[in-house]
Write a structure and sequence with these properties.
Helices cover 40% and strands 23% of the residues. By secondary structure, it is of the alpha/beta class. Helix 3 crosses helix 4. The longest helix is centred in the middle third of the chain and has 26 residues. The two termini are 31 Å apart. The relative contact order is 0.13.
Length: 253
C-alpha cells in the first residue's frame, strides 16, 4: 500500500511536510530539506498519547519533527485507532465510562480494565505502524532505518518485539500497562531510553519500574524527572536525540 499524499508544504528551514492517507489512516511525514535518493535519511516514528488526536497534538508533533530534522532524521506520525475522526473502537465507550467511574471514586483501574482499555488499541495500531513503515521505506529519500519515540507505552513495547526495522526506542512510562505488555517486555532486546515523570498522578510508578526491570535489553536507561505528566523538561528531548544519534550511527557502520 502506498502513501496517498493529500497536501504538502515547506516549513521554515525547508522541512517538507506531507499529509497523507494510508488506506483510511491519516498521517504526516516530515523530511529534512537535504533528504534525497542520493542522501537518504533514517526515520523516527512519533508516538502519541491516546484520546487527543493529531489535530490537538499538531504543534507538539511539528516541534518534534523539526528537532528530528535538525539531527538529519525524517519523522512520521499516524492517527491512532479511535482518535481524531477515525471510528471508535468496538466497546471503547463503555470501557472509558467504567474508567471514569473508577477514577472519580479515587481508585486505580484494575488489570482487567486496563487490558480492555489498551489492548484493542495495540492490536489495531501496531499493524498500522508496520504498514506505515512499509510505505515510508518505499520512498527513495528514506534509508530503511527507524527508531520509535514516545506515545502509548504498550504500543511501543509491542513494536519493539515484532518490528526488526526499529533499531532503538524511547518509551514514555506515562500510560497504563496491560498484563500482556509486562510479559512482552521480557522479549525486548533493542536499546531503550525510558522517560518517567516521578510525580505523574495518573501513572502507576511501581508498575513502570517493574516494566523497566522486565526489559531484556543489554542497554536500557531510565531517566526519571520530577514533575507531573506534562512536565517533561526540554533537556530530556536533547538526551533522547543523542541516544538516537548514537544508535543510528552504530547501525550505519
Amino acid at each position: 500500500m502506498n502513501l496517498h499524499v493529500v497536501s504538502r508544504r515547506r516549513l521554515d528551514g525547508g522541512v517538507l511536510e506531507r499529509e497523507f492517507l494510508l488506506g483510511d489512516v491519516p498521517g504526516i511525514l516530515w523530511t529534512p530539506v537535504d533528504a534525497s535518493e542520493t542522501s537518504p535519511v533514517p526515520l523516527v516514528m512519533l508516538g502519541q498519547p491516546g484520546g487527543l488526536g493529531m489535530h490537538r497534538m499538531r504543534p507538539a508533533l511539528e516541534g518534534r519533527a523539526r528537532s528530528a530534522s535538525a539531527h538529519g532524521l525524517a519523522a512520521v506520525a499516524i492517527e491512532l485507532p479511535g482518535n481524531g475522526g477515525r471510528p471508535t473502537l468496538p466497546g471503547a465507550e463503555s470501557v472509558r465510562a467504567e474508567l471514569r467511574r473508577v477514577l472519580s471514586a479515587g481508585e486505580r483501574p484494575g488489570p482487567e480494565l486496563v487490558d480492555r482499555l489498551i489492548l484493542p488499541l495495540v492490536e489495531r495500531a501496531v499493524p498500522e505502524w508496520q504498514a506505515t513503515l512499509d510505505a515510508c521505506f518505499a520512498l527513495p529519500e528514506l534509508d530503511g532505518r527507524a527508531v520509535y519515540s514516545g506515545g502509548v507505552i504498550a504500543i511501543g513495547v509491542r513494536l519493539a518485539v515484532v518490528e526488526p526495522r526499529i533499531l532503538a526506542a524511547c518509551l514514555f512510562a506515562g500510560s497504563y500497562i496491560p498484563r500482556a505488555t509486562m510479559s512482552e517486555a521480557t522479549a525486548v532486546t533493542m536499546p531503550l531510553h525510558v522517560l518517567l515523570q516521578w510525580d505523574d498522578d495518573g501513572n502507576d510508578r511501581d508498575a513502570s519500574l517493574a516494566l523497566f526491570d522486565a526489559f531484556a535489553s543489554a542497554e536500557k536507561t531510565l531517566h526519571a524527572n520530577m514533575g507531573g505528566h506534562t512536565g517533561v523538561p526540554a533537556f530530556a528531548g536533547e538526551e533522547v536525540a543523542r541516544f538516537f544519534d548514537r544508535h543510528l550511527a552504530q547501525a550505519a557502520d
